Structures are given as C-alpha cells and as structure tokens.
Amino acid sequence: MSTSKKVNIAEFKARMGVYLKRVRGGEEVILKDRNMEIAKISPIIKEGLPALKIQKARRTSQDFDDFITTATGLHGIDSLKLLSETREDKK
Known about the structure:
By secondary structure, this protein is of the alpha+beta class. 42% of the residues lie in helices and 31% in strands. It is elongated, with a radius of gyration of 16 Å.
C-alpha cells in the first residue's frame, strides 16, 4: 500500500465520498475515534477491479470501556450501550 490517511470519524462522515474515492485510488483510510485508531478501510482487487473492504477493528468494546473510564474517571460505563443510546437519540 502506497499511502494512508488518518481521519477522525466526524471528518470521515462529513466527507465520506472524498475518502472512498481515495480508497478507490489505492490509499488506505484509517479511522480514529478521539485520536485512537479503530478501523482501516483499504482497497482490494477483485477480478482486476478495485473494490472496498472494511476490516474489523483490532480493539474490543472492553478496550473502549477502559478508555472511557480512563478519560472520564467514571467506572462501569458500557460503551456499546452508550453508543446505542446516542444513536437512538439522533433518530
């Protein structure tokens, strides 16, 4: 892989088309949540044509729970439940 671009989730969401175009052009895009790398989008070649592949994150939800505890000082935070509630609030 020739180059990679690191970008926070909000920026990626706002300019997704731009970043997917870069992936189609051969770049990797590394997604970050609060400056912590969480996922990588990289091009794949299928039957000679570029395609997109989203790879599973290397960290678990427990890693995020630990991160939230460290960052906030709050204990017993369930990051998956918090994310789900946040998404429900936006509907």
